[in-house]
Amino acid sequence: MLTGSARFFYVFLTLAVLATLITSNHVTADENWPSYRGSSESGHVTSARLPLHWNEQENVVWKTAVEGKAWSSPVIWGERIFLTSASEDGSRLSFVCINKKTGEVLYKKLLHSVALPQYCHPFNSYASPSPVAEAGRVYVSFGSPYNACLDSETGDVIWERTDFVCNHFRGPGSSPFIYKNLLILHFDGSDQQYVVALDKETGETVWRTDRTVQFDDVNPETGEIEREGDLRKAFSTPIIVNVEGHDVLVSLGSMALYGYDPESGEELWRVDFIGSHSGAVRPVFAHGLIYTVTGSDAELWAVRPDGKGNVSDTHVAWKHKRLAVPRRSSFVVVGDSIFMVDDSGVAACLDAHSGDLIWKKRVGNKFSASLIQDGDRIYFFDQEGKTIVVKASRKYEVLAENKLDEGFMASPAVSGNALFLRTRTHLYRIEE
User: Fold this and answer.
1) Which of 9, 163, 187, 278 pairs with 335 at a CA distance of 20 to 30 A?
2) Which pTM does this prediction carry?
3) H/E run at residue 60
4) What domains lie within the chain, and their CATH numbers?
5) Nearest Cα to 74, choosing from 65, 85, 83?
C-alpha cells in the first residue's frame, strides 16, 4: 500500500506525464498543415499567435525562389514543406520539398512530362491543385494528366495514375482529399464530370460516381454543347461532415452541391443551382449548416446536410445573393459570423444564422487566395502581394497592412507561429 507521500508523488507524476502528452500532441497538430486549408479544412489556425507586421525587410526568416508557374498551396508535415509546380506550357509537372527551418530545397523531382498538354486559361496554372500530406506520404494531383502518391522522405513515386479522362478546358483546380483509406479526386470537365475514390495505399479505384445534374447547355437543333462546355466545369475540393453519426462527403460540382456516402460513392442528396457553374470555393460546415458558393452567379447558400434525394426546395436555409460573395477565395466562419472577400476586393461580414449583412468594406483589389483565422484576426491575401489583417469582429477594424514584392494566388500555410506564403515566384517564412 502506498503511503500518503508516495500517493502524492504518484498522482503528481501521472499528471505531469499526461500534461506532457497533451502538450506534445497539441504542438504536433499545430506544426502540421496537411492540406491547403489546414487540419481544420476550413482555414482555422490554432497557433499561439501569427505575425501581425512584415515586409521584404521585416520578419522574413527566409525567402526561397520556386521555379515554374503554379497556384497550388504549400502543405507541411513535420520539418518539411511540399509544393507542386509546372512549366508554363504544362509539359513538365514537378514536385519540390523544402526544409521548413532553413528554406533549403531538399529535393526537386520531375514527376511527369506531357506531350500534348490541354489548354489552360492564362489566369490558371497547370499546377493549381494543392497536395495533401500525411506521415510518410504526399499525394499530388495535376488533374487528369497525372496523380500520384510520393514518399515524403525521398520524393520517390509509390504509385501513379495517368489514365483518368477529363478535359479540364480551363485547367485543373480541385485538390486531392484524404478520407480514411481513400484518396478522393474530382474531375469536373467540359466532357466528363465525376468523383473517384482510390485506395490510398495502392492507387486502385475503389468507386467512381458520375454527376447526376442535367446540364441545360445542349443546342436542341445541332446536339452540340454550347459555350464549349464551360457550364459543366467546377474546381472545388470536398469536405466531410458528420450527420447523425454518419459521415457525408460534401462535394461542389457545376450547378449542384452533392452529398455522397464516402465509403461507397452513393449519392445521398443534391441541391441544384440553376445555371451557376465553375464553382471553386470550398464549402465550410458550421452550426449544422453547409455554407457554399454556387459558382459563377456568386451566391452564398446555407444548406442543411440531412436530406435524401433532390432537396433543392426543402433544405436551403437561406441565400445571400452576390454582394461581396467570392468566386475563388474560400471564406471562414468564426463564431456566429462569416468573413469573406470577393474577387474584386470587397470584404464582408455576414450573420451565420441568417445570412444578413453586418458590414462590407473594400480591403484591396483582386483576390484568389483563401482566408485564414487566428484568434481574433482574419488574414486577407490579395493578388498584388498585400495582406490585410482585420479584427474578427462585427465592427470593421483594420489591424495591419503588409506587402511583399509579388502577388498571392496560392493560399497560405501555417506551422507553429509562422506563416508560409507562396507568391508567384517565392516561398516565404514569416515570423516575429
Assistant:
1) 278
2) 0.91
3) strand 60-65
4) 32-430 (2.130.10.10)
5) 83
